Amino acid sequence: MQDIQGRRDIRRSHEARANFWHVTIVSSFFVIVLGASVFLGVVMVVGALRGETSSNELTADGRTGRIARTLLDGTFCRYIMFDNKTAQAVEDRIGRCDESKAKSKNRSAIFSWGGR
């Protein structure tokens, strides 16, 4: 009877040790994933705060483009400055879509095939 009790105690201690290591491994995995995500988030926020440039600085170099994306109403556009060298896009402002177009001459509202 003591032999069975001894085996049972040894088996319980092995199970307790295995459960401890299982819990330790799973917990450390989640701690590492959480720590990595916090670290990457901090790096991205600090990089965004440090790398802020105004649209005037970007246009002074002469290597930028201005992108106008129409909003849902079709009247207003969201203007974005794009730097071709660094591939950095900076949201500029929201304004009317027709402000950047040159004021055209009075055109008649008559349809013309192939007319421009």
Task: Give a summary of the structure in a few sentences.
This protein is α+β, with helices and mostly antiparallel strands and 116 residues long. The protein is rod-shaped.
Structure description:
It is a single chain. The protein has 2 domains: 1-44; 52-97, no CATH class. 47% of the residues lie in helices and 21% in strands. It is built from 2 helices and 3 strands. It has helices at 2-50, 55-60; strands at residues 64-70, 76-83, 88-96. A hairpin with a 5-residue loop joins strand 1 and strand 2. It starts with a helix and ends in a 20-residue tail after the last strand. 3% of the residues are buried.
Contiguous low-pLDDT stretches (5 residues minimum) are none
**What is the end-to-end distance?**
104 Å
Strand residues, percent: 15-25%
**SSE pattern, N- to C-terminal:** HHEEE
Instruction: Report the principal-axis shape.
Output: rod-shaped
Largest sheet: 3 strands, antiparallel
Helix content: 40-55%
Count of helical segments?
Answer: 2
Structural class by helix and strand composition = alpha+beta
Radius of gyration: 33 Å
**What is the residue-mean pLDDT, rounded to a whole number?**
78
Indicate how many domains the architecture comprises: 2
Number of strands: 3
Strand order of the largest sheet: 1-2-3
Topology:
Elements: H1 2-50, H2 55-60, E1 64-70, E2 76-83, E3 88-96
Antiparallel strand pairs: 1-2, 2-3
Short descriptors:
single chain, alpha+beta, 2 helices
